[in-house]
């Protein structure tokens, strides 16, 4: 937190109300509030969107602590006003969150995994630190073991919170089609690289090199086999730019672009998909967890030596399997797509059931999380 935030943020002049459950970081809190009754929960905004003035004043009464750790001191002030039984977050890559337990031992601290994680490189938390939670709700058993190497706490396999929310509505499928899952982001305007990954600056063109080879191949293959080509969009903020990105790969060639129109619309599209292709999108794994016929061409990290982008990481699967390949070999891609068509429903479910639960489970309606919240509140009375 910087003092300059005060010039840009919205100030709240009332003290925060006491609550049973405090949501740490309001980003995507919509999903947690679908589980938690409004009267039970409060939200601690941590990115300067809202600042509670009474909490800020209380924090500044400890000037040495405040000017050394302004956000931490403000957060502690907010928690002291709310007196929650549980602090829960859906933003699991916030380093500060993992050290709350040091200062608030009597409060249950839990996080929900929100996407593919590179863990220590993403969180900047080292093995042997004091990072601690009571419970971590993770997507699957392998990633739970990886978290436990850097964060002390109990791991519960929940799957994807958002994927678990979307219940199939049995809408008509897109027949005789293949859907590619987009991972588009706009090119940064104020820096000469796209992302920092594995300690390396990755250029935009390098990150999206797999799309530039795979998309034209998919289009030509599907036209040859008389199948429809669909692209599932992934951003609401830049839909036009996203569609343009794919049209530039294909010129005037035909495909149908399915824009993201809400926080859950992508799940509607994948539920209606006949077959799915993805590179390393979390949504692709979520589709597989639902039993969808999907192929993973997990080749992106090969361009800069990042093994955490291989299929099913941190599991150690073969480089190529019945529905995945860590290499962008177009002959193998063709064989994998044909596998999606060839397997009977029984064969497909058998293959998927032996692989996917090791990566991501599916817990419709988030029953495990609801039960944990209910039992934890009952035990805290």
Describe the protein in words:
The chain has 381 residues and is α/β, with parallel strands linked by helices. It has 16 helices and 17 strands. It has helices at residues 29-33, 53-60, 63-68, 70-82, 100-103, 120-123, 141-147, 161-165, 204-207, 209-224, 239-250, 265-272, 282-289, 330-342, 345-355, 367-379; strands spanning 10-12, 21-24, 41-44, 50-52, 86-89, 108-112, 132-138, 152-157, 177-181, 195-197, 200-202, 228-232, 256-258, 275-278, 294-297, 320-321, 324-325. The strands form 4 sheets. The chain has a 7-stranded mixed β-sheet with strand order 13-12-9-14-15-17-16, sandwiched between helices. Strands 3-2-5-6-7-8 form a 6-stranded parallel β-sheet, with helices on both faces. A two-stranded parallel sheet has the order 1-4. The mean pLDDT is 91.
Class from helix and strand fractions? alpha/beta
Number of helices: 16
Q: Which CATH architecture of the largest domain would you pick?
A: 3-Layer(aba) Sandwich
CA distance, first residue to last residue: 34 Å
Low-pLDDT segments, ≥5 res: none
Tell me the name of the CATH homologous superfamily of the largest domain. Answer: Glycogen Phosphorylase B
CATH class of the largest domain: Alpha Beta
Describe the sheet with the most strands. 7 strands, mixed
Q: Overall mean pLDDT score?
A: 91
Radius of gyration: 22 Å
| CATH fold category name of the largest domain | Rossmann fold
Residues in β-strands, percent: 15-25%
Helix amount? 25-40%
Strand order of the largest sheet: 13-12-9-14-15-17-16
Query: How many beta strands in the DSSP annotation?
Result: 17
- Domain count: 2
Task: Name the shape in a single word.
Answer: globular
